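Now for one protein, fold included:
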Amino acid sequence: MKLLIVVDMQNDFIDGSLGTAEAQAIVPYVKGRIADFDGRVVFTRDTHEEDTYPSTQEGRKLPVMHCVRGTHGWHIREELQAQRPEAPVIDKETFGARALIDFLRGVCERDEIEQIEFLGLCTDICVISNVLLVKAYFPEIPLVVDARGCAGVTPESHATALSAMRACQVTVTE
């Protein structure tokens, strides 16, 4: 079985409070990859609580409210989720999703995972965090990052994150 993990393709990261032109530009490509993927698709969703986010380390270092549970910005872009409405959504409170590891352990108990592919936002924060977390727990499963389906906070930090993942034996396709 092949898995495609779509990281945090949420409104706030595309054209909301933390949106970028680069994030907006990858939406059509990501939509096509989700629609055409020959395997199982999983979404992750950055999730914060309005009353506690400011007191977290992330909230202090990035004091921009985003992805607050239940808001428009928290939702995965509708046109992307519509490609695979049955796909599970894993909420994550931090950059790397511990719940993703639990989900993958369950999948491994039932099926053999041939490969896990990642795309999404932001390459230099949540994509790299989840890729390296999965690599640590499942070192023998081949991991692939589709660079065309990722965008970082800046083009430079996107490129740096891709280089770091390559150094950790992750295949990066361009």
